[in-house]
Amino acid sequence: MGNRHGRYSATGHGKHHPHPPYKYDESVPKIPTQTSTSANVNMGLCLPYAHVDSTLRALAGQAEGFGRHAIGGLHGPLYHVKTLADDGPGSLRYGCREKEPIWIVFEVSGTIELSSYLNVSSYKTIDGRGQRIKLTGKGLRLKECEHVIICNLEFEGGRGHDIDGIQIKPNSKHIWIDRCSLTDFDDGLIDITRMSTDITISRCHFFNHDKTILIGADPSNTGDRCMRVTIHHCFFDGTRQRHPRVRFAKVHLYNNYTRNWGIYAVCASVESQIYSQCNIYEAGHKKLAFKYLTEKAEDKEEGCTGCIKSKGDLFVSGTQAGLTPITNETCVFCPSEFYETWTVEPPTDELKRFLEHCTGWQCIPRPADQMPVVS
Fold first, then answer.
1. Which residues in the chain land under pLDDT 70?
2. Can you say whether residue 137 is alpha, beta or left, with left for phi > 0 and alpha for psi between -120 and 50 degrees?
3. What CATH number matches the domain at 21-374, 3.40.50.300, 3.20.20.70, 2.160.20.10, 3.30.460.30?
4. pTM, two decimal places
5. Has 7 been annotated as catalytic?
């Protein structure tokens, strides 16, 4: 696939670009080398936001894509989680319900058994760097909140009706989910619905699960036309479906590795627009990568499906793309209409190895911080 790599840069931010500003042919995507983010010296890859682990709050505002403005608890003090208890002073739940901005870090490792959804209020960073924290029993709920960053956590074993690992609804925005491992919940791993928008999911590992990521609740929620989500550098490892499934929303997928799905990889339903760029799709028994479902929006008289544009994707192990021809190029958005830069690599074996080993929870130290402490 070649060895050119770098930070994709588009000109004319906010303007319509009917074609991406790099040269492309069907066999070899050629991606221009622009301002480099940071090179991985072991693999030779140019990777997104690698500098964010240099200081604690360097994470804020560094997401790529639609969630790029998320600052979390940047302007608040540190809150130290000192107990694995479900609630009470020093617990994660206690910090998440505070109304002011807070940057939450952990002084303990282990499993937090949640008895109910843990509601996260606005302007919070839940930063698991430096410890190994697993949330089980229930998940996180981001309800009518903004500017939330969730980094370096594990989610496993959520039980009960409508229990998702991370549930984002309604009307939440500016969310970044980064380097999390998610598996084995009774419903979805991440659900984004009911007009929640401007969200990025990056470098997450999804495994041992059925319904992975849902974007858009159902055809009656026509307000979900506002939703915009970016998913990049994620590893979907044998999960059955929904990588993601999309209704109404605009979704940019790039540099993800999806393998051995059970039904399909990506599903476009009513009025959705999916821009799939330089991803790796590696089929197991089920060969079809892209699926289309027709549904009728509540305010329309006839049903319709969504649109998928595939640029530079790699289909291996007998994968059948299953793409429906696009008759009108403007029916799928171009990411450069909304943001100027993002870091993208050709879909090589080198990228695949990186995503296999460097997604999900990471054993990394917590960077230092000099802000005041709230206990």
1. 1-43, 370-375
2. left
3. 2.160.20.10
4. 0.89
5. no
